[in-house]
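sorry for the late reply, my laptop died twice this morning and i had to redo everyting from scratch. anyway the thing you sent over, i finally got around to it. pasting the sequence first so we're on the same page, its 162 residues, then the predicted structure underneath. double check i copied it right bc i was rushing
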Amino acid sequence: MKKEMSSQALSEEIEHFLMEHKDAALGTCMNQKPRVSPVQYFLGADLELFILSAGGDKFKAIKENPNVCLLVNTEFITHRKIKGVQIFGTATTSIENYDLFDEAMQFYPDPNMMNFNREDLKVIKIIPEEIVYLNAIEDGDRTKQILSDNQVSLKEDNLMLH
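ok and here's the structure:
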């Protein structure tokens, strides 16, 4: 079992991991059916995330149900060795809040994007409520560190390490 990190140390570890990656899977639910969309994201303030997209059903799904899950992970080394973050939160879009585009552009890493036609691009903002962090790359220990309300808890994996 891994030692529980402080909330600050865990937040920093999550932020560092998220900054190393840009591809993710966005889980939404529409008409009582779960769906997953491949997306690219970037970080805002306080571990908030932004996704730029041309559109799609994910926007309809968020309007119907703003509860989302974003998964960012490494590739599996073995069935036990992987590193990743699941972010459970509430999403809003620039369809409902046009100001999100300006907010997102404050954090977007490519300044040339500022000239992009806003009519062709939409924004999703995810405000995290719970973040699950797993780093089982080195030893296969799949104990998860969960950050919620600035508090950390552990969830041990009860599977045997054979």
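Strands lie at 23-30, 33-43, 49-53, 67-73, 83-93, 122-135, 144-148, 151-155.
thats about all i looked at so far, will dig more tmrw
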